[in-house]
Amino acid sequence: MRASTRVIWTVSVLMLAAVSDAIFPLPFLPFLPGFNNGIHDNDAVEVAKPVATGGKAGGKRRSGGAPEAQTNWPGKWELFLENSGVSAMHAGLMPLINQVQFYDATIWRISKIKLPPGVPCHVVNAKTNKIDCWAHSVLIDVNNGAIKPLSLATDTWCSSGGLTVNGTMVSTGGYGGGANTARYLAACPNCQWHEYPQALAAKRWYSTQATLPDGKFFIIGGRDAMNYEYIPEEGQNNKKIYDSLLLKQTDDPEENNLYPFVWLNTDGNLFIFANNRSILLSPKTNQVIKEFPQLPGGSRNYPGSGSSALLPIHLYMKNPKVIPAEVLVCGGTRHDAYYRASKKVFEPALQDCARIRINSAKPRWKIETMPTPRVMSDTVILPNGDILLVNGGKRGCSGWGYGKDPNFAPTLYKPRAARGKRFRELAATNIPRMYHSIAIAIPDGKVLVAGSNTNDGYKYNVEFPTELRVEKFSPPYLDPALATLRPKIATSPKQIRYGQNFNVKVNLNQKDVTKQSLKLTMLAPSFTTHSISMNMRMLLLGVGGVNPAGGASFEIQTVAPPSGNVAPPGYYLLFAVYRGVPSTGEWIQIV
Asked: SUPFAM superfamilies, per this entry (predicted)?
């Protein structure tokens, strides 16, 4: 990393070590002015004692709900595709067409699938007539596995993304000539990428993109980009950037603040977490309005690469003025893991999960212990509101060959279960999913898992070969023994407006169906890369009543989210959930 910063790091280590070697697990932890350090303030961090896990996970009753269906089934893996054509460094589910977008890095000029006939090859160098006829982007049907290669000209290596109100994917940043680019891919069977190489004011390599309450986008960070900006309309170029003191002060010798976690709070402000610290930023005034306690233990962002989620937001038919929001951060590394890995020393990853109520008057981190250490994992919100931690390793960090000891077994985390009973290890895969892996929830309730490429290019005769196989994982709620509990959405609106009352008709052959046992959830699909699931968001809708609708059918009375602060406009997957068992999702759009 930067030599001058290394000198500061070394001096800081020596000075702090002289004072005390017991205060911090690693010494150099910078502060914002007036920052409330969670390590010094006993009220800012609460650590739960480790509890042995195994068997059934979680409590038997969700908060305010009926008993959840119980199962010891550990889930099931299935091989979906032998060859995805493109290694899934980045992934996003496209609304309505139910196709997942994978793309990698065009700099390698190679993949495992050619551009289709009639699509011109990309001219890499006009002087030498060097061309690239390989596809670096594919659309894959999540139901039948059909693959459609697409052409990309700008380099998407380590970029960011999200979906517009109408379901268009917006990909931003990347490497070299792609770093200032915004790319657009509409959700239609024959659509192609449209690229605008000068759309962004700053180069964005390892940046994070977040959807705002009005459906527009905010983008922050990237290598040597200690700032943020707002993505302009398609075809326009942005020229204005805003400095980020948080990024400047969390940029340690190993960086550890790339791909920061960004979550839209229910008040319309942005929760931003970098390295081990976090703030609440107003996108209206560009002022920091809250500083949160520091999360001890190590680094959580690239290359430390923990993972994060905004926990499901619980809504009611009539919501309180302040709607609670809670952030989860799991895994990561010690602060110097990247440097040590460069010396072939692969330290154990962090084994904690921490959560914080960001709208609390006195927010504090509550820390729990996972069954195993995790780095480079993906965090996926499941249709029933549970969390799946999957992929990654147990030692090292992100980087070419810097991660070791694959974590084959996913962990289920039940955020509404009793503390100490939230974790459960599930069935293991036999495919290592290390650096550059992805995992996303898909409409049938399964999780699509792909990628893993710890190599600079497509390489196969190495410790962890470039991985092109795609798997699907069935969580425990898809236990065949629970099949009769699985509802089916018969009718639901295609579009809703904020605060609108609407009904959802569900087919379910059960007798004890009440508003306590039958729920509705809405899941915003994520853009996933490098262990960060941008814009992933779940709403637990309020239920006014559940009434018989003839035969084995029921009508659920509910209300749409109150505002774009709670749920930005755009497409969501709507699920009916009976005693923890979800239906297949149906697309619904907030307009």
From this structure: E set domains, Galactose oxidase, central domain
